[in-house]
Amino acid sequence: MKKSGILNRHLSGALAELGHGDGVLVCDVGMPIPDGPRVVDLAFRAGTPSFAEVLDGLLAELVVEGATAAYEVREANPAAARLLDERLPDLALVPHDELKALSAGARLVVRSGEARPYANVLLRCGVFF
After folding, report:
1. 34, 59, 82, 120: which could form a disulfide with 104 (CB 3.0–4.6 Å)?
2. Largest interatomic CA distance in the chain
3. Which residues pair with 24 in a beta bridge?
4. Are strands 23-27 and 108-111 parallel, antiparallel or unpaired?
5. What does each of the 129 residues of the chain score in pLDDT, given as a tens digit?
6. Percent of residues in the chain assigned helix, strand, coil, to nearest 5
């Protein structure tokens, strides 16, 4: 039994299958989930787990070489925008509709319980060497 890191067996296994260039969409409860990517739904209740908790857990285990979010987050959800800026300094911003289209190419979708708008980010996996 694992004693640290991500303990959810479905998420831990899905992360182990990722490779360089794979996309991981971390999303709120309102983000439409495209057909195709593997989905690990962590949502329990509105707000639980939060976008911040899920993002921080993933960033502790993944090598991330790039990230994309919707520019609408800046105005609609300043707390999420600050979090993204702090955690992902090279964040690219696109219109929300474009983020939804890009998410169709993700290999994995991790749905949080976040219930504030535009708390979504598409991570691009890097390599550790």
Report:
1. 34
2. 43
3. 108, 123
4. parallel
5. 889 999 999 999 999 999 999 999 999 999 999 999 999 999 999 999 999 999 999 999 999 999 999 999 999 999 999 999 999 989 999 999 999 999 999 999 999 999 999 999 999 999 999
6. 30, 25, 45
Q: Are 48 and 116 in contact (CB under 8 A)?
A: no
Catalytic residues: 20
Q: What does the block give as tokens for 12?
A: 């831990």
Amino acid residing at 86: E
Q: Which residues contact 14 (CB under 8 A, 6 or more apart)?
A: 38, 40, 108
Residue 59 neighbours by CB distance under 10 Å: 15
Q: Say what the pTM is.
A: 0.96
Hunting for tokens 């219109």 — which residue is that? 95
